[in-house]
Amino acid sequence: MFPKRTAAKLNPWFCPNCKKAASADDDIVLCPECGDRLIPQGYCPVCEHFWRLAEDVFCPKHEIPLEAGPSTHDEPTAGDQTISWVTVKEFPDSLSAAIPRSRLEAEGIRTFLAGERMAAPAMYHVATGGAKLQVPADQVAEARIILSQNWSLPGDEKDDFEDLL
Hints:
The chain is α+β, with helices and mostly antiparallel strands. Helix content is 16%, strand content 19%.
């Protein structure tokens, strides 16, 4: 009757003409209502929701392009081994962690900011305990050394930038 769908059925499908969703059990590529070709629904990684919109169309809530589907990895991995993350410093909000995080990443240390969303200055950072800057367990010592360093300009260089400060 209808040709079989060739793409993987990981993402829900919909008809762009009549906006009807196709169930996961359907093996058809054409809409039974209007006969238009079915396409996969776009996925928003922020709201973690499929929309009856095509991929690369902007999410109606967050104005970012929709993707093909959710990531299949829940936790970052290195090869076949799971990475063990260790907290090296806590911050009252995610904005305070931006510079130390950038410094660590500039030195080649991978970082993860636990509680980044909820520790935003306008969110619930007091209730959640702020943001926790984490690094892989094998790089903890190096990260703590870098975070303990003074990043201010030497006195003779401050004179050069006095009008900017």
